[in-house]
Amino acid sequence: MRIDVSAFVGAYPFRRVPGTSPDALLRAMDRIKVEQAWVTHLPGVFWRDPAAGNPWLYETTAKHDRLVAVPAVHPGLEGWKDVLGEAKAAGVPAVRCDPTFYGLDPTGAEMLALARACGAEGMPLMLAVRLEDARQRHPNDRAGELPPWAVRTLVRSQSDLHLIVTHADRPFIEEVHFGSTPEESARIWWDISWVWGPPEDHLETLLGTIGVERFVFGTGQPLRLPETSVAKLDLLDLSKEQRAAIESENIVTLTPSEARGKGRSSNRATAPSRSLS
Amino acid sequence: MLIDVHAHFLHDRSPRLDWRARNASRLRAGERVGITVHVASILGSWGATSPIYFPSPSDIEYGNDFLLQLQRSNPARIRGYAVVNPNFTSHALAELARCLDAGMIGIKLAASRRANDPLLDPICRVARERGVPVLQHVWQHRRREYPGQEASDAAELGALAARHPGVNFLLAHIGGGGDWIHSLAVVRDLPNVLVDLSGSGVDGGMLEECVEAVGVERLLWGCDLTIDTGWAKLRYLEHMLTGDELELVKWRNASRIFPPTAFPTD
Q1: Which residues does residue A165 pair with via DSSP β-bridges, in sequence order?
Q2: Omega into A199 within 30° of 0, i.e. cis?
Q3: Mutation for B interface: A137, A207, A225, most B CBs within 10 A
Q4: How far is B20 from chain A, CA to nearest CA, in Å?
Q5: CB-CB contact of B108 with B142 (8 Å)
Q6: Which among B139, B205, B227 has the least Cβ separation from residue A198?
Q7: Pick from B21, B204, B236: CB nearest A17
Q8: Which residues in chain B have Cβ-Cβ distances shorter than 8 Å to A235?
Q9: Domain spanning A3-261: which CATH class is it, in words?
Q10: Residue B190 to residues A11, A94, A192, B217: CA-CA distances in angstroms?
Q11: Which sign, positive or negative, has the C-alpha torsion B235, B237, B241, B242?
Q12: Residue B142: pLDDT band by 50, 70, 90 thresholds?
C-alpha cells in the first residue's frame, strides 16, 4: 500500500497546472500506484479564509474512497476552534496550516494556540515548507518559506503535538532533527518529496542518520510530478519492510482509525455542515 | 539507449571529500535508470581554488583533464564537454582544440560571461567548425544579478544562437531554477536551441509546455544534480509521448546534434 500524504485538488493561482481535478488526481494515483492520497484544497491556501475551501474538500473526498481530506485551519480567524472540531468529527488524519501563506508569524501566538489545540485533540498538524521552488515563483507570490526554527518552536511548545512536515530538504530536516530532543523529533514525520536522491544521496543519508521511521511518502502533486517520490525510493536499496514503512506504515501508525480505514472500505469521513463563510 | 546530456563529476581537488562516492553514486544510479551515456562536465575546481562559475585557466585544465581520464576509463559510459572561460580567449580556444582533439564531444559554458557577449563568438565559431554543440548554463528568466555567477537567461542565449545559426545550443536545465515559462516562450522560434530537461524541478505541466513550445524534436533528456528527478521526468514522458517521440527525447535528438561518432550506436 502506498499513501501520498501530500496532495492537492483545485486550481493553482500562479500558473497553469494540469491535473488539478479529483478525477485527474485519481488517474495520476493509478499511474504511480498510490492507493490513497491525503488532499488539501489548493486554492484555499491562498484565500483570506483558507478554511472556506474545507466544505468542498469534505464533499469531494466523501465521493471518492481513495481521497482523504486534510482540511485547513487558520488560527488567526474567529471560529478556528470550530474548524478544528469539525475536522476531528470528520475523522480526518491531520489538519494543515501554512502560516507563511496565511500571513501568520510561524512562531507567533496564533500558531502556538493551534499547536496546543492540535496536541490536546490528538490531531496531527501538517505544514509545508514551500510549495514551489523559490527561484521560479510568481512575482506576486511572496510568502516566505517555513523556517526550520518554526518547526522546532512548535514541537517544543506542546509535548503531545505531532507534526507532518512536507517539502523540506535535507538541511532543513537535519537542522530540526538534530536541534530537537529525541522525544521531540519522534513527534515529527517528514515527507520525502523535496529530498534529493543520487548522486548527492540526501535521502539515503537521512534514512541512515535520522531513521526510516521518520519518513513518509508524499509527492506535492499535482504541482510536482508524483513519479519523483517513487523514483527516489526505487533508487534506494531498501528492504521490503523499510519501503513499506515509508510508503504507508509510518503514517498509518499516526493516523486515526477512521482515516486509516478509508480506501479499504466504505468507512467514509462525514462531511461537516459548516457553510461557506 | 538513454543519453544524459547534462551530468557532472567531481575530482580530488574539489572541496568535496566525498567526491569518489558521488561519482560512483552517479554511475550506480545511472545503471539502475538505464543511462547508456553520461555527457558530463567538470567546472574547474568546483570552487576550491577559483569560483565554480568563474574557473581559472589552470583549474579548467585540471577539471578537463580529469574528465578526459574518466572518459578513457569508462569509454562506454562517459563523454565530456570541454569547459572554458570566455574571459580568457586564447586559453579557451587552445583548451577547446586540446579537449576536442582528445575526444570530448561538446562545449560547456557556465556563467563566466553573459551569453550574448561578443567574447562568446570565437568559441561558437570553434563549435561550428568542429561540429559540436554548446551547453549553456541558464538561469530561467534572470531578473537580476546573482552572486557567484554572471548568469544568462534564454533571451541572452537566444541572441547568441541567432548570431550562430550553424551551432546547436542546449539551454541548460529547464527545471534547474527560475521561470521556465519565460525561457520556453523565448526559444520557441529558435531552431538551433534545444531544451535540456534536467534540473531538480519537476513541476506539473512543465513537460507538457516544453513539448508544446519546441516540440519533441528539440528536447533532450538529462539529470544534472538529481537523477531521481530525471528518472521521474522520463517515467512521466513514457506516459505522455508515443514510443517514437520518446526515443527522440531519450537519445535520437542528442545523437543528431553531437558528433557522429559520439555514441555507441553510431
Answers
A1: A127, A190
A2: yes
A3: A225
A4: 11
A5: no
A6: B227
A7: B204
A8: 29, 32-33, 227-228, 231
A9: alpha beta
A10: 32, 49, 38, 13
A11: negative
A12: confident
Rounded distance between C-alpha atoms, residue A217 and residue A243, angstroms: 10
Does the CB of A14 have a partner CB in chain B at under 8 Å?
Answer: no
Torsions phi, psi of B153, nearest 5? Answer: -115, -175
What domains sit in chain B, N to C, each tagged with a CATH number? 3-257 (3.20.20.140)
What the block records as the C-alpha cell of A203 is: 535521502
Q: What is the pLDDT of residues A129-141, one digit of tens each?
A: 999 999 999 999 9
Reported as a single tens digit per residue, the pLDDT across A97-115 is 999 999 999 999 999 999 9
Three-state DSSP class for residue B17? coil
Q: Cell 523499510 identifies what position? A: A242
User: Does the predicted interface ipTM exceed a cut of 0.90?
Assistant: yes
List, for residues A7-41, the tens digit of each pLDDT value. Answer: 999 999 999 999 999 999 999 999 999 999 999 99
Q: Which phi-psi region, left, alpha or beta, contains residue B252 (left: φ > 0; alpha: ψ -120 to 50)?
A: alpha
B166 confidence band (pLDDT: 50, 70, 90) = very high
Distance between CA atoms of residues B176 and B2, nearest Å: 20
Q: What's the confidence (pLDDT) of residue B143?
A: 85
Please state, in angstroms and rounded to a whole number, the distance separating the CA atoms of residues B201 and A277.
36
- Residue B67: all three cell numbers together: 574528465
pLDDT value, residue A258 = 55
Which amino acid is residue B33, in one-letter code? V
A135–B178 CB contact, under 8 Å: yes
Q: Does B32 contact A at CB distance below 8 Å?
A: yes
Q: Pinpoint the alpha helices (H) of chain A.
A: 22-31, 54-63, 80-90, 99-102, 109-121, 148-157, 170-177, 182-185, 202-209, 227-234, 240-244, 250-252, 257-261
Strand partners, B82: B107
Report the chain B residue with the minimal C-alpha distance to residue A20. B204
Q: What is the pLDDT of residue A267?
A: 35
Please tell me the distance in Å from A262's CA to the nearest CA on chain B: 27
Query: What is the domain partition of chain A in residue ranges?
Result: 3-261
For an interface test with B, the pick among A235, A236, A237, A238 (most B C-beta atoms closer than 10 Å) comes out as A235
CA distance B63 to B56: 10
* Cβ–Cβ under 8 Å, residues A5 and A67: no
Q: How many residues does chain A have?
A: 277
